[in-house]
């Protein structure tokens, strides 16, 4: 079972749901925030290739 812990995105308008959403301005910031959260949350960052990354805890 896997759980989405957070979403990091460049486009807030296209994202919704129950996970925390972090909105950033640039692609390099998207990467920085995602990889920082990956370490903090002990999760895996997955790039959806559309300006959005999800942080997933795989159990």
Structural features, described:
It is a single chain. This protein has 59 residues and is an alpha+beta fold. It has one domain. Helices cover 25% and strands 37% of the residues. The protein contains one helix and four strands, in the order ββαββ. It has one helix at residues 27-41; strands at residues 2-9, 21-23, 44-47, 52-58. A four-stranded mixed beta sheet has the order 2-1-4-3, with helices on one face. A hairpin with a 4-residue loop joins strand 3 and strand 4 (52-58). The protein is globular. The N and C termini lie close together (6 Å). InterPro entries: YpzH (IPR054055).
Sheet with the most strands, sense and barrel status? 4 strands, mixed
Please count the helical segments. Answer: 1
Determine the structural class based on helices, strands and strand pairing. alpha+beta
Helical coverage, percent range: 25-40%
The sequence of SSEs as H and E is EEHEE
Overall residue-averaged pLDDT value:
96
End-to-end separation: 6 Å
Provide the β-strand percentage band.
35-45%
Low-confidence stretches: none
Count up the domains: 1
Q: Main sheet: which strands, in order across?
A: 2-1-4-3
Rounded radius of gyration (Å): 10 Å
Q: Count every beta strand, where a strand is a DSSP E run of 2 or more residues.
A: 4
Shape: globular
InterPro entries: YpzH
């Amino acid at each position: 079972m896997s759980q989405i812990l957070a979403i990091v995105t460049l486009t807030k308008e296209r994202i919704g749901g129950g996970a925390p959403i972090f909105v950033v301005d640039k692609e390099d910031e998207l990467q920085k925030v995602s990889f920082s959260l990956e370490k903090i949350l002990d999760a895996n960052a997955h790039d959806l290739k559309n300006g959005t990354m999800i942080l997933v805890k795989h159990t």
